[in-house]
Amino acid sequence: MARKKYGKKASEKVERAMHEMKRGELRSGRSGRKVKSRKQAIAIGLSEARKAGGKVPPAKRKRTRSK
What we know:
Blueprint: H1 8-23, H2 38-51
């Protein structure tokens, strides 16, 4: 099975988000709360890379139950 590939822009955005988190400057979406989780910082970096048009695999979709 092939691994998912991430572009250079994606790694730069994630690196910046991690750096901000470590300094306590990274804030999350609408609430504006301080990000403490490493996983959340990575998700924010990848989201920013997607918006900037970087090479990032699509985000996982939540499945909804249908009746």
